[in-house]
Write a structure and sequence with these properties.
Two copies of one chain form a homodimer. The first copy, chain A, is α+β, with helices and mostly antiparallel strands and 238 residues long. Chain A folds into two domains: 70 residues, Arc Repressor Mutant, subunit A (Orthogonal Bundle), CATH 1.10.10.10; 142 residues, Chorismate lyase. The first copy, chain A, contains seven helices and eleven strands. A six-stranded antiparallel β-sheet of chain A has the order 3-6-7-10-9-8. In chain A, 28% of the residues are buried. The interface between A and B is large, with 52 and 52 residues. The structure holds a DNA duplex (19 and 19 nucleotides). Chains A, B: This is Trehalose operon repressor. Chains A, B: Keywords: DNA-binding, Transcription, Transcription regulation. Chains A, B: One of its GO terms (biological process) is negative regulation of DNA-templated transcription.
Chain lengths: 238, 238
DNA sequence: TAGTGGTCTAGACCACCTC
DNA sequence: AGGTGGTCTAGACCACTAT
């Protein structure tokens, strides 16, 4: 299943990451890229628009596609990204300690959203960076659609297992970030000082068919927390 | 300048917001929408894809475009949105108190990014919600491209002025969220308790021609801070 | 089988930038 | 004037979902 516009986007992204196109350079023109890849203009443009959304390039009318300089900080952080992916791409050499994995009842609500699945697999994982606890992740993997989870998956990449082994199409998530006092058990696991709050990220993730499949609460040590985002202005006013 | 795909997107977004299409409904098929708006398929699809990016609909192969239920929480918050826009669309009836407005030197760096503009207009604004200080915004509006700022603009909507009066095209931003101890002067303005940290959002915003124009540091009271995001999974792996 | 969305094409016209 | 990206069209073929 090789979509042309995705292959072009990946190829150009590779070349940008590997410095074959430097920040400040212009990519070849759309016409040239069409000839290079043997594709029509709309297909080539779809690839370029994808790169623009990610913040890798900026398209300038009448001039060309300019390579931006922000990927090093921004690249994989916004959007839906797993801890493992982040760890890999930022070279954090972090460590994951699985504290619990068990099956049980699913939460009935996530904020105001009612959850239909009755069962769930609960995982609790502590992320350790530089010998210091940094993040405590509590995940409910909803059943359906996830019925079993091999023991070692939680230790490594959950998303790789869901996408590659189970063939699930992870598509979108709603996320909420707040700062809160947390219960003593959690504070202890994160080695928080007395009354020190944690950054709490709650997210509900969906498959392409709109089934919710994962409900996550991440507790971050405030001194280790950093959220980086690249955002384009989305106007939809009237 | 009425782009067809934008007009279709706005029209459909209106109808979703005004409950003419309910969550769980399918929009008319692409073919029907083409006939309805008198446009080609690709143009209609561009509008639908825009709505999908915003999280208003989810496209399902072989079925149709499903109206999602998340806009009420998520709608205008992620991306680049001004406080005034948020205030309006969430009905926060917040209050803005302009503490300072003066011209001076621009900061030389924003994180690792060097700033070329030498001059800047500095604005300090306190956002008050329910009689309580909630956010302290410090903005540097870079000169160039912004040379003057009428007195009352800071009190109302800066973005409306930049986009509508100056005709600037606000396009993208990099944003960084951390939790930090802040200097006493700032802690006092936010009425923070002793040693209570603030949520600090630093952002650098750019025009469509890649000129940086605004450098903002927002200090949030942690108990008032909430960041809501709708994110689609962006894969660009190899 | 009929309807749906997903991808792709080969053209057209326009607005913008540069020379 | 010539090159660039932005928009739009009218088709085509495919894969998926229903019945």
């Amino acid at each position: 299943m090789g979509l042309k516009h995705e292959m072009i986007a990946q190829d150009l992204a590779e070349k940008i990451k590997h410095q074959q196109f430097l920040p400040g350079d212009f990519l070849p023109s759309e016409k040239q890229l069409c000839e290079l890849y043997g594709t029509s203009r709309e297909t080539t443009r779809k690839a370029l628009n994808h790169l623009a959304e990610l913040g890798l390039i900026q398209k300038l009318k009448g001039k060309g596609s300019l390579v931006l300089d922000i990927q090093k900080y921004t690249f994989p952080i916004s959007g839906i990204t797993s801890f493992q992916e982040l760890n890999d791409s930022l070279g954090l050499h972090a460590q994951t300690k699985v504290l619990q994995q068990k099956t049980g009842a699913a939460p009935k609500y996530f904020g105001q959203t009612p959850i239909e699945a009755k069962k769930a697999i609960f995982i609790e994982r502590l992320r350790i960076i530089d010998q210091q606890p940094a993040v405590l992740d509590q995940d409910y993997l909803l059943d359906p659609p996830i019925t079993v989870l091999p023991k070692d998956v939680a230790q490594h990449s959950l998303y790789a297992y869901l996408e590659n082994e189970l063939g699930l199409e992870i598509d979108y998530a709603t996320k909420e970030i707040t700062v809160e006092q947390v219960e003593p058990a959690i504070a202890e696991k994160l080695a928080l000082k007395a009354n020190e709050p944690a950054v709490v990220v709650r997210s509900l993730s969906y498959l392409a068919d709109t089934t919710p499949f994962q409900l996550t609460t991440s507790y971050h040590r405030p001194d280790k927390f950093k959220f980086i985002d690249f955002a384009r202005r989305k106007k939809l006013n009237h």
